[in-house]
């Protein structure tokens, strides 16, 4: 992100959500983003993922400038290069765990989407839950499905927005352990947005966002 700003129209005029942000991420790096509620953390992720367009500045991922992509091309790029895990899981309630993971693979035309999806669910400890619907799964299990779906496409970048926000402390710790384990296996880049500094400090580097501005942190000691 180079000099990125993001504004939204409000009743009293334009509201500055993000202001003049410079932020880089190296291949294979883990980056923690912390900040208080309402500071712009989730908006940062949305712009980083191309789910919201920057109002100014440049967002460039793996050499691709988002400004030059149509919405269709941006969606295709995101599907093939980026995995996203949200706090609210975002699973389709009428589809089984297996089908939820297989959907992006089918859309991308990947071979044997159901087989790949099954292996991903086994990888996150849900091989016995393939035919279960989200409503039949616990919160932790639903987030495991979301992780399997995000990693199924083997993304270059994984974006996680408060992935433990809807989970109890014990379950959340297991999900974070699994997230970092999958990251180490895949060797992709990871952006972890969290309100918990202790979780962020598991990353290689931590930055803080306040009032829509990012303050660079230092490398986290090993």
Describe the structure.
- It contains seven helices and eleven strands.
- By secondary structure, the chain is of the alpha/beta class.
- It has a single domain (25-47, 70-215), classed as Rossmann fold.
- A six-stranded mixed beta sheet has the order 7-8-9-3-10-11, with helices on both faces. The protein has a three-stranded antiparallel beta sheet with strand order 2-1-4, with helices on one face. The protein has a two-stranded antiparallel sheet with strand order 5-6.
- The two termini are 26 Å apart.
> What is the architecture at the second tier of CATH?
3-Layer(aba) Sandwich
Kindly report the spatial arrangement of strands forming the biggest sheet.
7-8-9-3-10-11
> What is the strand content?
15-25%
Please give the domain count.
Answer: 1
Give the SSE string.
EEEHEEEHEHHHEHEHEE
Number of strands: 11
- Assign the structural class, choosing from mainly alpha, mainly beta, alpha/beta, alpha+beta, or little secondary structure: alpha/beta
CATH topology: Rossmann fold
Spans of 5+ residues with little confidence (pLDDT < 50)? none
**What is the alpha-carbon Rg in Å?**
17 Å
Biggest sheet record: 6 strands, mixed
Q: For this structure, what is the CATH homologous superfamily? A: P-loop containing nucleotide triphosphate hydrolases
Q: What's the rounded overall pLDDT mean?
A: 92
Q: Which bin fits the share of residues in helices?
A: 25-40%
Taken from the alpha-carbon principal axes, the silhouette is globular
Q: How widely separated are the two ends?
A: 26 Å
Number of helical segments with 4 or more residues: 7
Q: For the record, what CATH class applies?
A: Alpha Beta
């Amino acid at each position: 992100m180079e000099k990125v700003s993001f504004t939204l129209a409000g009743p009293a005029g334009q509201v500055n959500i993000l202001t003049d942000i410079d932020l880089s991420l190296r291949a294979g790096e883990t980056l923690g983003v912390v900040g208080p509620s309402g500071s712009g953390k989730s908006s940062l992720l949305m712009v980083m993922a191309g789910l919201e367009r920057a109002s100014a500045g440049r967002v460039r991922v793996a050499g691709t400038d988002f400004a030059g992509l149509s919405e269709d091309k941006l969606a295709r790029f995101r599907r093939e290069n980026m995995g996203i895990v949200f706090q609210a899981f975002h699973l389709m309630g009428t589809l089984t765990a297996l089908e939820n993971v297989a959907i992006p693979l089918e859309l991308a035309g990947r071979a044997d989407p159901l087989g790949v999806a099954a292996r991903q669910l086994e990888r996150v400890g849900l091989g016995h839950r393939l035919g279960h619907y989200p409503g039949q799964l616990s919160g932790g299990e639903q987030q495991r499905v979301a992780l399997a779906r995000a990693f199924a496409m083997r993304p270059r970048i994984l974006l996680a927005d408060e992935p433990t926000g809807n989970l109890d402390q014990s379950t959340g710790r297991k999900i974070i352990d699994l997230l970092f384990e999958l990251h180490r296996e895949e060797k992709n880049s990871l952006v972890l947005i969290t309100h918990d500094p202790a979780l962020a400090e598991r990353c290689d580097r931590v930055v803080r966002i306040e009032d829509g501005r990012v303050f660079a942190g230092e490398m986290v000691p090993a």
